[in-house]
Design goal:
The complex is a heterodimer. Chain A is mainly alpha-helical. Chain A is built from 9 helices and no strands. By secondary structure, chain B is an alpha/beta fold. Chain B has 2 domains: 178 residues, Rossmann fold (3-Layer(aba) Sandwich), CATH 3.40.50.300; 72 residues, no CATH class. The longest helix of chain B is centred in the last third of the chain and has 16 residues. The chains are: A mainly alpha, B alpha/beta. The site of adenosine-5'-triphosphate has 11 residues of chain B, from helix 1. Chain B: InterPro entries: AAA+_ATPase (IPR003593), ABC_transporter-like_ATP-bd (IPR003439), ABC_transporter-like_CS (IPR017871), P-loop_NTPase (IPR027417). Chain B: Pfam families: ABC_tran (PF00005).
């Protein structure tokens, strides 16, 4: 009996702290966004975060996208080879890359790379009193550290996904033309006739949401880290894990919202 | 309501009944302290006695459990966020570990508060850089140090950059958390002189935490000793070494025997 009560109490406590965490995360995000609407805006901080997101993540995202496009082409060929394989493969590659794989893979790669770096940087600033120092120097840390990073995530990830989309299709093209011997022109016309503006736009909208989530998790975990180097390490890990899970969760929600009819 | 006191007698900072615990560890246990404008007060006390926490409470970085903190007669704890931020902007703080921004070069650290000013007090980067060089010279650093990163400096140099950053925008209130720890004796004396100048020439109000008795008597007008979460002694800094209070005596003379036993920290 006692152990049952204990279990119930533990579940209750867990739920409560989960709800509290979600609430404080939401408030943190809204607070960060609200600073975008009120001057001053720190352009230098924004461009630095943007470069971190877009430029330095480009190679990883590019390679991931190319290989994924190649693998999809190869996999679907085994399934479709007897039928109208050429156009079917172009169709499958472009739809899966633009709708799903581009945003999701870019999101996961960036979460591991940029989300971790952000959590580590802000976390170090927290445990060495640098965030406290900002407040005594007429600078709001949410405005200076968090707001520019959130905006950088929202802007940069869609741009990365444009590149990922193009390279993913290129990967499919390479396998189809070189390995499977399809005509290059046929593959391209096939791709262009299947892809719709709506697919691309929704893919990019997903990317913007993922960029926000990744920056938010990096900032939030860094901002609330405590306890020296160990605490910063823990913050970094939770930032990556949380950003990856939330990216996939939001992917489902957004897909349900836009594609499932 | 009490009638307003005569001007000049209103303390710049007035603390009453300040309590703060972390978990079941009582750090501040009823602090009452008045800091008069244009004076400098040194706070002494054993390691871990809550000196830094006291400053962090006044800065609004730590929320006290009970008590009031008034700056210029206004309770900062009951202010809304914007007012509290505006009040905090008048305070310059040298953190115990310097807390320099390691992503920025030294000169931008020093000029950070200046560059953050808006409106009519806004200044350009070139001007900020010139001002930073000036303040760096004041703390005994060559202006060429301005191009280095904080990580390239020695501990004592970082401390001085932190000091330069705190005084660069000439705040009305200055907090120094162990300003001369890690400095050689000559540089320590230079920094003490600089702090005294801030108070005498600029008219700032200062609180300094220090473990260095020579420095305490040089910097301070007033002094207070913190022990077990309470201020056990307040008096003139000049009388620190012959205060007649057994605890202060033991502390300032560094005796092992006396009313302060060596307790193991929990
Ligand atoms: N954020 C915090 N969380 C938990 N405990 C804290 C926190 N900050 C300070 N403490 C505790 O409060 C006590 C006083 O700390 P404080 O930093 O004020 O000491 P101090 O008087 O400045 O010592 P020192 O001279 O060594 O700098 C310490 O026991 C410390 O463990
Ligand atoms: Mg301290």
């Amino acid at each position: 009996m006692a152990s049952v009560l204990d279990l119930v109490a533990r579940i209750g406590r867990g739920t409560l702290s989960g709800v509290r965490g979600a609430g404080s995360l939401t408030l943190f995000g809204l607070n960060g966004l609200s600073h975008l609407l009120r001057p001053p805006f720190y352009w230098r901080a924004f461009f630095q975060a943007f470069a971190e997101f877009a430029f330095f993540s480009l190679p990883v995202v590019a390679l991931t996208a190319i290989f994924s496009g190649m693998v999809i082409a190869l996999q679907s060929y085994t399934g479709f080879s007897r039928f109208n394989a050429q156009s079917a493969i172009a169709d499958i590659v472009v739809l899966s890359v633009v709708r799903e794989l581009g945003p999701v893979l870019a999101g996961l790669m960036v979460a591991g790379r940029v989300g971790a770096a952000m959590a580590a940087e802000i976390g170090t600033m927290r445990v060495t009193d640098q965030i406290d120092a900002l407040g005594t120097l007429s600078t709001n840390p949410m405005k200076y550290l968090v707001a520019p990073r959130l905006l950088a995530g929202i802007v940069a990830l869609p741009l990365l996904v444009v590149v990922a989309d193009i390279l993913g299709v290129l990967g499919g093209f390479i396998v189809s033309v070189i390995k499977l011997g399809f005509s290059p022109r046929g593959y391209i016309t096939g791709t262009l006739s299947f892809v719709q503006t709506g697919d691309v736009v929704v893919g990019l909208a997903k990317a913007a949401v993922f960029g926000f989530v990744i920056a938010l998790m990096g900032c939030y975990n860094g901002y609330h880290s405590r306890g020296g180097a160990e605490g910063v390490g823990a913050a970094t890990t939770s930032a990556v894990v949380a950003a990856s899970i939330l990216t996939l969760a939001f992917d489902y929600v957004l897909t349900e919202l836009f594609f499932a009819r | 309501m009490t009638p307003p006191a005569a001007p000049g007698a209103v303390p710049k900072i007035r603390i009453r009944g300040l309590h703060k615990s972390f978990g079941d560890k009582r750090v501040l246990d009823g602090i009452d302290l008045d800091i008069l404008p244009g004076t400098s007060t040194v706070i002494i006390g054993g390691s871990g006695s809550g000196k830094s926490v006291l400053l962090r409470c006044i800065l609004g970085l730590v929320e006290p459990d009970a008590g009031t903190i008034e700056i210029d007669g206004v309770d900062v704890l009951s202010m809304n966020r914007r007012q509290a931020e505006a009040t905090r902007e008048q305070i310059g703080m040298l953190f115990q570990n310097a807390a320099l921004f390691d992503s920025l070069p030294v000169w931008e650290n020093v000029a950070f508060g200046l560059l953050a000013q808006r409106g009519t007090r806004r200044i350009g980067r070139a001007q900020a850089r010139a001002l930073a060089s000036e303040v760096l010279t004041q703390v005994g650093l060559d202006p060429s140090v301005g191009d280095l990163r904080p990580a390239e400096l020695s501990g004592g140099m970082q401390k001085r950059v932190g000091l330069a950053r705190a005084i660069a925008s000439r705040p009305q209130i200055l907090f120094f958390d162990e300003p001369t720890t890690g400095l050689d004796p000559i540089m320590g004396a230079v920094i003490d002189g600089l702090i005294v100048d801030c108070v005498r020439v600029l008219g700032s109000t200062a609180i300094a935490i220090t473990h260095d008795m020579a420095s305490a008597t040089r910097i301070g007008d007033e002094a207070a000793m913190l022990y077990k979460g309470r201020l056990v002694w307040q008096g003139k800094a000049a009388s620190l070494l012959d205060s007649g209070n057994p605890m202060v005596d033991q502390f300032t003379h560094g005796r092992r025997e006396g009313p302060i036993g060596m307790e193991l920290r929990r």
